Amino acid sequence: MIYPDTYELKIGFDRIREQLNSACISPAGMRKVEAMHAVFDSSEVRTRLALTAEFQQILAYGEQFPSDNYNDPYATLEKLRVEGTFPELEEVVALRGSLDTIRRIIGFFKNRKDGRYPLLTEMTGKVLYYPFVSEAIDRIIDKEGKVRDSASPALKTIRAELASKSLAAVRKLHSVLRQAQADGIVDRDVTVAVRNGRGVIPVSASNKRGIRGFVHDESATGKTVFIEPAEVVELNNEITELEHQEKREIVRILTALADTIRPYIDDLEENCSFLAAIDFIRAKALFGNRLGCIMPSVADTPHIRWINVRHPLLTLSFARTAGREVVPLTITIDSGERILVISGPNAGGKSVCLKTVALVQYMLQCGMTIPAGEGTEAGIFGRFFIDIGDEQSLENDLSTYSSHLINMKQMLKHADETSLVMIDEFGTGTEPVLGGALAEAILAELNRRGSYGVITTHYTNLKHFATSQEGISNGAMAFDNQLMQPLFRLDQGKPGSSFAFEIAKKIGLPQEILADAATRAGEGNVDFDRNLREIARDKRYWEKKREAVRRHEKRLEELIATYEAQLGDIKTQKKEIITAKSKAEEMLRDSNRVIENTIRSIRESQA
Predict the structure, then answer these.
(1) SS3 string of 11-74?
(2) DSSP secondary structure string, 351-393?
């Protein structure tokens, strides 16, 4: 179940469809995009994701995959089911092109030895391809898409006679033209023209009686008439009749072709469906590679363990502006903490976080790879619910709050342990105390049912409730309270401050107004919000300290490694020096022995 009917519009999936449509080659592929929907079986989701991921590899490796003639001959094949019908020539050419593309796709996977694309190979292996259909077309259609003279003996005879008659007509026409030029009836620079498919001679209106024949047309000014000479009228009539015979023979040939392929129309339509499916998968792969999407690990049970997930539409939008990057979302929603209540300042990214979860999970269950980091895990949800935006209806006399309550009613009616519930600005639109109490009761019921969800709010009571309830956790959108600007980073495990007083102070509201507001809010609420800010400040302080320690430790490890390497070099050099010293002492002893032996020899010989 997906609620409401405008779910895709609310999360921006309609714009994803537009991106996929622009990447499709054929109308059939676009129809696949329009028919795309979320599935709720984990094995089917894995298969669809794997097909997309395999095609992403084909594109990434730059393989020569067929990408032309993705035609859509489905309507032609349906027409040919009726006995006696025949295809138009361009329809035959389109069918032939599609069959050739299918043949090349089959060959692409069949000839592989590396087993790199197993699911696409398996999908292609199920296609029943009949070469003789292409051969039957090739026997009557040439490479230029025209009917061959050899398509039938009758057609060959007709075209030969047609060529002969046409040549005779042209010669006769030019003969009459040359005679008319010699007689001064027409100018020397006049050439043959064509009117109504007939060869004619342009003649000035004053000389039109100089040539016997049939007037087909005249110029806009009436000064020139176009005459078909009487000498060629009969020849042209014969040519026209031969052209009609040619058309009738072509229709007969195409009708015979239709009779030949009619028994195989079901298989040919399956081929067309296969080609459309390949076009659809290719479009998803192009989109996936454009965003650096991956196939995450997919589990059977509902859960979200995402690492560095980026909102796809924001990523595309920011890519057009230098220096802008989407802050990635790392989020965990599992059986231990099924519902995440996100709080924080306005314009801090709460709604973007919610829409990222809604859109990316929906893309995943539509068989699209997602823009996430390695190590991302995803489960499959059985139902999707969302309440976001202003649903005020003048026609139904519904206020914004009433429309929210109607959405809550549907969620409470249908939500279960497989549901993903997303509610933006939970509880707003009515008196805060009562609205907050009602929101808390609804949240408690969703938690009792075991539903999963992402909920954004400013209400303090919901933050307290999330802290005290098993199955619900708080999350905060990080905010730099020194620079007074959002960081668009989700921190799970603690509630966030709305920084209402700080933002109001930065804008410039008078101090006495802020003091009065603090008094009216009550010391408990002010202290709670201040404590949240201090916790956030302290957390960032210790994160910076931890980062500094981490850098120092890394530097220390590098120095230790350097010193150990230098010490190893010194030890090696010491060994080399000791060895060299030993060798030198040995050489010295050898030299001394030689000298002593020499002196002894000299003395003994009394030299």
Answers:
(1) HCHHHHHHHHHHHCCCHHHHHHHHHCCCCCCHHHHHHHHHHHHHHHHHHHCCCCCCCCCCCCCH
(2) HHHHHHHHHHHHHHHTT--BS--TT-EE---SEEEEE-S---B
| pLDDT one-digit tens code per residue, 266-314 | 999 999 999 999 999 999 999 999 999 999 999 999 999 999 999 999 9
Q: Model-level pTM?
A: 0.77
> Strands 471-480, 485-492: parallel, antiparallel or unpaired by DSSP?
antiparallel
Question: The tokens 């363990």 sit on which residue?
Answer: 305
Residue 549's identity, in one-letter code, is V
For residue 429, how far is the Cα from the chain centroid? 37
Instruction: State residue 392's pLDDT score.
Output: 47
CB 399 within 8 A of CB 370: no
**Residue 455 dihedral angles phi and psi, to the nearest 5°:** -130, 135
Give me 405's structure tokens: 């309550």
Distance between CA atoms of residues 488 and 473, nearest Å: 19
Return phi, psi of residue 425, to 5°: 55, 60
Residue in the structure block whose two tokens are 């796809």: 312
Backbone angles phi, psi at 337, to 5 degrees: -130, 90
